[in-house]
Amino acid sequence: MDQNKQPQGQQLNIELGEKEAEGIYSNLAIISHSPAEFIIDFTRIVPGVPKAKVYSRIITTPQHAKMLMKALMDNIDKFESKFGEIKIDSAPNQMFGFVPPKSSEKVN
Hints:
The structure is a single chain. This protein is α+β, with helices and mostly antiparallel strands. It has helices at about 20, 60-85, and strands spanning about 30-35, 40-45, 55-60. Strand 2 (about 40-45) and strand 3 form a beta hairpin. It starts with 17 loop residues before the first helix and ends in a 25-residue tail after the last helix. About 0% of the residues are buried.
């Protein structure tokens, strides 16, 4: 039997710790890759702050990255069927939905 495949009907029990169950909010993902792996850095952008902190990094195989993409596409299709199309701004150099501060405004 192929070691990468689970026998049909076998369940996988996934443990979700208390800390992990809280989740981490991210409003920007930065994705890079090499021939052997994909790296996804989950960051958070705050209005008026010119840098973003990485809160979580996932490193995975190209095969798993593609399976993740397909799972996301499937779930987005299901979401949009139920709640309507998710609209995104495709304008270049967008500020991720944030309005930059005016030059007269103080940024901490």
